[in-house]
Design a protein that fits this description.
The chain has five helices and five strands, in the order βαβαβαβαβα. The chain has 134 residues and is α/β, with parallel strands linked by helices. It has a five-stranded parallel beta sheet, with helices on both faces. Helix 2 (32-44) runs parallel beside helix 3. It is globular. The two termini are 21 Å apart.
């Protein structure tokens, strides 16, 4: 599995990498602009991401804007429906507006920080990537 972790906070980035490294190759972007650029490169090189963990609150381009841009890139490449990259929004924002906006923009899951490894892996499993043994 190809995984892109988009997170501006070093500690959160490191935690996500540690949680997911055993399930695939993890690349990192530190803001939304970099995430969209990295996503385009991976797609153009024929190695698209299967999963993106995307923080909402980031400088330069937030997670909502990045997800919109990523979905636009997919549309331009003729990618739609189940072929779209799966996205888990990771954020401290648990208010209903942010949650609903994220799902409207096309995220598949929403994990509130602080990140709990088991909760994260349960969401990755729910998206169909892994089987979590209890």
């Amino acid at each position: 599995m190809n995984i892109l972790i988009v997170e501006d906070d070093f500690v959160c980035r490191r935690l996500l990498q540690r949680c997911l490294a055993g399930y695939g190759d993890c690349d990192v972007a530190i803001n939304g602009i970099e995430a969209v650029d990295v996503f385009k490169v991976a797609l153009d090189e024929g190695h698209p991401y299967d999963l993106i963990c995307l923080d909402i609150m980031m400088p330069k381009m937030n997670g909502h804007q990045a997800l919109e841009a990523i979905r636009q890139v997919e549309t331009e490449h003729g990618i739609s429906g189940p072929d779209c990259v799966k996205v888990i929004m990771t954020t401290v924002l648990a208010d209903s507006r942010n949650v609903m906006d994220a799902f409207r923009e096309g995220c598949g899951s929403y994990v509130v920080k602080p990140i709990d490894k088991q909760n994260l892996l349960n969401e990755v499993e729910r998206l169909g990537f892994i089987s979590v043994k209890v």
